[in-house]
Design brief:
Length: about 350
Amino acid sequence: MKHRVTLIPGDGIGPEVAEATRRVLEATGVQFQWDTAVIGQNAMKKYGTPLPDEALESIKRNKVAIKGPVTTPIGSGFRSVNVALRQKLDLYVCLRPYKTYPGVDTPFKNVDIVIVRENTEDLYAGVEFDKDDAMTMRLFDLVLEATGKEVRKDSAVSLKLISETASRRIVKFAFDYARKNGRKRVTASHKANILKFSDGLFLRTFREVAKEYPEIESVDMVLDATCMQLVRKSEQFDVLVLPNFYGDLLSDLCAGLVGGLGVAPGANIGDDIAVFEPTHGSAPKYTGQNKVNPIATMLSGVMMLHYLGEQNAADRMENAIAGVIAGGKSLTYDMKPNKPVGTSQVADAIIDRLE
Ligand code: NAD
């Protein structure tokens, strides 16, 4: 059976890592029908919007997409297309498995952590009030009336929104994932000690949901302690469930543990749609140089094969990637500073190893 998949090259280094991944996916023998869609800066030029309806419709139709990273201008310009995509398709889970492959240069051995990050709300809900805006002043009046607290008048505000609905479904996803994948422990990280209402609600919901999964150990841990423990004793973490903002930060921390962004895959998942993409961004300074590491996108492709029910091809592709990493020869500059190869040569080496 041919799988219809939306292929989003993205911008910056996106098209190079996406193409390398497409080649390896095809070399597994699984049949794909690619539906290429443009979002981000290239879509802005072509359609006048960074997230055209054509792209959204393609993903809704095919239900599965693989995506290169997309650039977001900092501080001004359009809001993040990645955030908009997750919100519009209600891809409420960001799933990121981080494990150390033998041969990767990192002091952290045997890391095997799956981050389950809430993807739709929290500080990234996009509800913000600018400094000096009339609405911001009205908000401050309300704050004064409700709490008696005087806010500095030259403040800007970003709302941290944590709902019971989103907390419940992300925590349930984390426990279901643990159950399906033979994982033993789910840890929730939070700052409920300070943020009593928002993170307090997340924590309460976690404890309630945990009762439905008595066979899985549940642990809750304050965020700062989690950061320290991840570095000191990473082996105690199995599945780690987090609200959006903390999940964003700890994803990169875990990517660092396992050897960097070059080997950190991910997926954004909703009830019936999934978009697979690496943790890293579009690294614009390396655009078009055939230089960056495609392995994070390829490992996202492995996750996609699992999602599509192609377990055998997924295992073969992961083994071929692991073999090339362990071989230590055909790797990009981030994994092999001395005489690295280019993006497309990594793909060639992995295709050669596919069994
Ligand atoms: P980045 O991940 O693009 O790059 C940071 C640095 O990490 C790079 O300069 C490079 O040294 C290294 N790096 C990243 N990917 C690599 C790879 N595959 N191989 C080797 N080295 C790699 O982060 P940034 O510079 O903060 O962001 C650049 C742009 O990407 C921004 O516009 C940001 O908004 C966007 N971004 C997009 C996504 C996404 O599309 N999902 C995710 C994160 C950032």
